[in-house]
Design a protein that fits this description.
The protein is mainly beta. 8% of the residues lie in helices and 32% in strands. It has one helix at 36-41; strands at 9-17, 23-27, 44-48, 62-65. Strands 2-1-3-4 form a four-stranded antiparallel sheet. 11% of the residues are buried.
Length: 73
């Protein structure tokens, strides 16, 4: 993911189990606010703080999970 500007962003993502308890957050390609389908398909949001540097695949990120795993229904 590219570096972030001064605004904190929340990126829609699919949470995927990678064996054991390791989870991967895969961001959707299109993050436009009008893309409700990606929000409906998302399992969570990747939190990108202000001025976050570019993130490479495999790096740790903050994630807000949706659904029963997060204790929400």
């Amino acid at each position: 993911m590219p570096a972030n500007d001064k605004r904190e962003d929340y990126v829609r993502a699919r949470i995927v189990a990678q064996g054991g308890q390791q989870l991967t957050a895969d961001p959707f390609q299109i993050q436009d606010s009008g893309m409700l389908l990606t929000l409906a398909r998302a399992d969570g949001l990747i939190r990108r703080p202000s001025f976050a540097p570019a993130a490479q695949s495999g790096e740790l990120v903050d994630v807000i999970r949706f659904g029963s795993e997060a204790g929400l229904f």
